[in-house]
Design a protein that fits this description.
CATH architecture of the largest domain: 3-Layer(aba) Sandwich
Helix content: 40-55%
Shape: globular
Number of helices: 8
Distance between the termini: 44 Å
Strand order of the largest sheet: 1-2-3-4
Strand content: 5-15%
Number of strands: 8
CATH topology of the largest domain: Aspartate Aminotransferase, domain 2
């Protein structure tokens, strides 16, 4: 199976209908299952509808599964609940494994999930607009710091940026060493890009308060502008 995450963690980029359709068709013709992880599907900043993976290539419907979570869109991380849309045979096989490993979500979580999915969605849109505000602030401040390249996220709540310049001038071995030094000296947690197959990058989450973002970026700017 091949797993596709869109909107992406860590880049925040979104595959459009054409891209995703071609990918599904390619793996369908090779008889390979494609799993779409779309847990950030409602946290998007672009116009237009998020593509429905199950409908893009009708002939491939038995080769596509969608997995999702309520942790991101509805801030229900601690409720430990998600869902899948999959062909009946695949869903049955998944159930056989899942029910013997984690039993089942508690009834309270299930009721809360139904309410989250079927209830008023205005809070979700308000959250997305707040994330957009934080993303735009991030971009402005990173541009002010300078020598950091990035692609503006289309969704999710991560900034994925290339810190090659600072790794070089501070004479660090790699992004892991830079991230650890920032953690130890600034108490700011950044995830090394190497964990995602992208050396010299760092992932920064803006799923926190604007006050924490402002303070974290202030510390980061001071650190990067000063010597080691």
């Amino acid at each position: 199976a091949v797993i596709v995450n869109s909107p992406s963690n860590p880049t925040g980029k979104i595959m459009d209908s054409e891209e995703l359709g071609k990918l599904i068709d390619y793996f369908y013709k090779k008889n390979i299952l494609i799993i779409i992880d779309d847990c950030y599907r409602k946290i998007i900043y672009t116009s237009g509808e998020y593509p429905s993976p199950m409908n893009l290539v009708p002939a491939a419907s038995e080769h596509v599964a969608v997995i999702s979570s309520l942790s991101k869109t509805y801030a229900m991380t601690g409720w430990r609940i998600g869902y899948t849309i999959a062909p009946e045979k695949l869903a049955a096989a998944m159930t056989k494994i899942q029910e013997h490993s984690t039993s089942n979500p508690c009834s309270i979580s299930q009721k809360a999930a139904v309410e989250a999915l079927s209830g008023d969605q205005s809070a979700v849109q308000a959250m997305v607009e707040e994330y957009r505000r934080r993303r735009d602030y991030f971009a402005r401040r990173v541009d002010e710091i300078g020598h950091i390249t990035y692609a503006l996220p289309d969704g999710a709540f991560y900034f994925f940026a290339d810190f090659s310049h600072y790794i070089h001038i501070k004479k660090f071995r790699d992004d892991n060493q830079l991230a650890m030094d920032i953690l130890e000296k600034l108490n700011v947690i950044l995830v090394p890009g190497s964990a995602f197959g992208a050396p010299n990058h760092l992932r920064i989450s803006y799923a926190t308060s604007m006050e924490d973002i402002q303070e974290g970026l202030r510390r980061l700017e001071e650190y990067l502008r000063n010597g080691r």
